[in-house]
Amino acid sequence: MSSTQRTAILTGATSDRGIGLATARRFAREGWGVVVLDLDGEKSAKVAQDIANEFNVPAFGHQIDVADEASVSAAEKAVAAEVATGHLPQVGAVANIAGITSPVPFLETDLALWNKVMAVNATGTYLVTKAFLPAMIEAGWGRIVNMSSVSAQRGGGVFGRVPYSSAKAAILGFTKALAREVAPTGVTVNAITPGAVDTNIRVGSTDEQEAAIARDIPVGRTATTEEIAAVITWLSSEDASYLTGTTVDINGGSHIH
């Protein structure tokens, strides 16, 4: 089955300078149907329509709160209805990209912040995966790509810190355990750990902060969102059929051992 007969589900895919939007556009350029799921339902629908018009692929946008089970279930049912009526191809990939950071020192965090960051990043990955996995298992083919971070491996910087790093580390354990469990079904599960990426999260950082970050990266710059999108779509392709339970570092060499 070619990519033109499959749909990619993406969470957190409406930000103009975000990894999610770049990935949605990359999937569409490669012929996939695209589902844009975001907290802003109106913007999700607008982004999906723009993608459909530009790339001539089926696209659908829907509101979702990835940390809320009822909201995730409603989104899954809406997508299933689009598939059942032939408006979308069957689901072939899920990219769990939605996430939030925790840019405050540990002793300034409180339980509410900890719970929110864990809910959106880790619990959201769990809920969305659980909702869309059965259809892929039934089809005997599927790809799940989870967004972790270099912060999970070496601790967060000014944009992440402890709650964020902890949530992203949980995603790595989730990825490996689920990959082992579903490997016989034809579904692969992998994670990516981007380093510094030129996204809207970086808005407000100083020139000094950006220069210091670049100095820590052997290639001398941050990643573009398109470079991250390329890896996500490749992990969702036929070519990545024997890769599961792994973590792909995308950091310009900044985490070399």
UniProtKB/TrEMBL annotation:
Record-linked InterPro entries: NAD(P)-bd_dom_sf, Sc_DH/Rdtase_CS, SDR, SDR_fam
Entries under PROSITE patterns matching the protein: ADH_SHORT
Keyword set, alphabetical order: Oxidoreductase
Pfam short name (any one): adh_short_C2
Molecular function in Gene Ontology: oxidoreductase activity
TM region positions: none
Swiss-Prot/TrEMBL GO biological process terms: monocarboxylic acid metabolic process
PANTHER family: 3-OXOACYL-(ACYL-CARRIER-PROTEIN) REDUCTASE (PTHR42879), 3-OXOACYL-[ACYL-CARRIER-PROTEIN] REDUCTASE FABG (PTHR42879:SF2)
Family: Belongs to the short-chain dehydrogenases/reductases (SDR) family.
Protein name: Short-chain dehydrogenase
